[in-house]
Amino acid sequence: MTIPSFAFDNTSISKVLQLPDGGFLCGSAFIEYEDDTVINLNSETHPNAITVKKAKENLGK
After folding, report:
1. Is 6 helix (H, G, I), strand (E, B) or coil?
2. How much is the pTM?
């Protein structure tokens, strides 16, 4: 899995959130489930968010 190069090259992105499927979220997303439950994910404020630098290090392992 890789983080798109724009995430590493864009200095305005400081944190990413790794998603359960292995992808990464940079920014904010609302997810609505079939039961009408809605969650908001935000890579800058979520407690599991990591720095782009840390994500890059983790991917190198």
Report:
1. helix
2. 0.69
Distance separating alpha carbons of residues 20 and 53, to the nearest angstrom: 20
Using CA atoms in the order 1, 53, 42, 2, what is the torsion angle rounded to 10 degrees? -10
Residues listed for the chain: 61
The 3-state DSSP class for residue 1 equals: coil
Q: Which residues contact 44 (CB under 8 A, 6 or more apart)?
A: 14, 15, 27, 28
Summarize pLDDT for 10-54 with one digit per residue, the tens: 555 688 998 888 888 888 999 899 999 999 999 999 999 998 888
- List, in order, residues 6 or more apart from 49 with CB less than 8 Å away: 15, 16, 17, 42, 43
- Tokens for 27? 């920014």
